[in-house]
Design brief:
Blueprint lengths: L2 H22 L7 E2 L10 E9 L6 E11 L2 E5 L10 H7 L3 E6 L2 E9 L2 H14 L2 H7 L7 E10 L11
Antiparallel strand pairs: 1-2, 2-3, 2-5, 3-4, 4-7, 5-6, 6-7
């Protein structure tokens, strides 16, 4: 097992707890997150992304650190710098539409992968926000995707943690 795999395994329970708190409190807990353990700021912003498993067809909720960018939300598919993309990213590739929650607001929207000059500007911004993103990139030969989420409409219903994620 690599150092990165060990790191991700240790963080798995913390990620599950973060997700539970975020969903159960409708974002009151979990929206602001201490990211110093990951080379980030004392206070980082978190959203919850809802994907559909590309193999299972089940809904999956994933808490992710984001950076605000105008009226959009920027996330990074780093997976700690492993050579594989995170599962949530692979799930997104199959679907252009997404749902995500920011604090107590849920949105239906679209996503795009930043490319060219946009990616360069966002990457510089993001590596100032979470310094470990640059470290993660140095661990892998894959180009870590930078994704921009755009909200199209508000969704009213409150989310419940899927049974398979409890």
């Amino acid at each position: 097992m690599s150092d990165v795999d060990e790191l991700l395994a240790r963080r798995a329970e913390g990620i599950r707890q973060h997700l539970r708190e975020y969903i159960e409190t409708d974002g009151a807990k979990g929206y602001l997150r201490d990211q110093t353990h990951a080379g980030g700021p004392k206070v980082a912003l978190a959203l919850v992304l809802k994907t559909v498993g590309r193999r299972t067809g089940r809904e999956i909720l994933v808490p992710l650190t984001y950076a605000p960018w105008g009226d959009e939300y920027v996330i990074v598919a780093s997976k700690g710098g492993t050579d594989e993309h995170p599962s949530w990213y692979l799930n997104l590739i199959a679907r252009p539409e997404i749902d995500f929650q920011v604090k107590d607001k849920r949105f239906r929207g679209v996503w795009r992968e930043a490319e060219g000059e946009e990616r360069a500007v966002l990457w510089e911004y993001l590596t100032q926000y979470i310094r470990d993103y640059a470290v993660y990139q140095s661990r892998t030969s894959r180009r870590i995707p930078v994704l921009v989420l755009t909200a199209r409409e508000r969704i009213g219903e409150r989310w419940v943690l899927p049974e398979h994620q409890r």
